[in-house]
Design brief:
It contains five helices and no strands. The protein has helices at 4-12, 18-34, 38-50, 57-69, 73-85.
């Protein structure tokens, strides 16, 4: 697993596919989650859903997880539903 700084550096490189960018944003979200920086974790999880044409299920689940951690079940359910639909 990469450090936060390594992930941020990799995101800046221009040679990534959409799938690689989604994966990097999700991994970066986890690094912020570990430090309980949920706003930043949510920001990068959200970016993971918009870098591809259709949001990937794992990115939607990541957002759902962050809402569930913060006991925002209405929003968590919505994102889990999106993951099933995608």
């Amino acid at each position: 697993m990469y450090t936060r700084e390594e992930l941020l550096q990799k995101i800046q490189e221009n040679d990534k596919t959409q799938d690689e960018m989604v994966t990097l944003f999700i991994e970066l979200s986890y690094t912020f989650d570990k430090e309980e920086e949920y706003g930043e974790a949510l920001k990068y999880a959200s970016l993971a859903t918009i870098v591809s044409d259709v949001p990937r299920a794992d990115a939607c689940c990541r957002i759902g997880d962050l809402y569930a951690i913060n006991r925002q079940t209405k929003w968590a359910k919505m994102w889990y539903t999106n993951s099933i639909q995608n």
